[in-house]
Amino acid sequence: MSACTCSPIAGGHPDGGFIPVQSDWTQADWLGALAVRLNVGRMDYRVAPGLYAAGRPDAAAPVFVTANYKLSFDHLRRALRGLDAWLLVLDTHGVNVWCAAGKGTFSTAELNRQIEVTGLSKVVSHRRLILPQLGAVGVAAHAVAQATGFTVIYGPVRAGDIPAWLNAGRRKDSAMRTVRFSFWDRLVLVPVEIVNGRTHLLTLAAVALVLALIRVRGFDPLLASSFAGYATLLLGSALAACIFLPLLLPWLPTRSFSIKGATIGLILTACLAVLAPAYAGSGFWAVYQGGWAIAGSALAAGAIAAFVGLNFTGATVFTSQSGTLLETKRALPVIAGAAFGGLALQIIGAFCNNPS
User: How many CA atoms within 13 Å lie on the side-chain side of 95?
Assistant: First the structure.
């Protein structure tokens, strides 16, 4: 059987046929998974919607429904190693099941459409569909039954639990119902968040250079040192939030992601401000010395880290879609005000305490 590739491939054939796939991942699959973890080709990492066959399924084999985001598809087919099953892939525009269900693409209408397009009722003798539990918000089971005659069954949260779930007579224990967000789950978010923020990081670097020029007022040896100080403040707060916010998420204060992020930025500023007096003669530490500079640093670093934290609201199990929208609406004006205020105080500090 041929393996899935990273490029789009045909799903259901016009004659109601299907594409066979193997459960084991190839080197290309592993490299593709690594690439999307780094946000390389993420929006194009998909398979075509349609009907696929894992193993040698017959008319009585179970039908598993998934999204056409290739990583979701790959995790499902790998979980079905040694099993004979059908995979019905919905067109979610390359979005994973959970997000697609919230966006309305992993939906009742799309499921009904794929059942019809693939001629599924002619392929299987039963009328049961196994959907991922995280897709429940997008699919109305009763509407699917009324339109197609297929009954919707929700499987475990994680594809890896499917074999155990089947062996248990399709009964889920509490672990199979629980959405976990472990240290490893949070760790894998770090690379993609850093790559996603590359444009913001370049912008912060440019701002750091402008602030350094304002402080030094000319191209002299102090410029590089001053730029390094501002870059450590601005870029450091963003990178620290990208790394430490997901890792320390359960232990950071409050339920607000923007406040969790701001906490990291403030801690970074406090640590640097404590070290600064011992290096009073260096242009690097000038950004952390004096009342104006420290206040500006705290506001700027807190705002930047808060913005990074806000981006995590849609990547965790701790918030709903409405909660994400509400926090974004409330936090963005405060973050913007703190960022501009911090930059203003830094400029004032640069003129009040110019080392040149």
Answer: 15
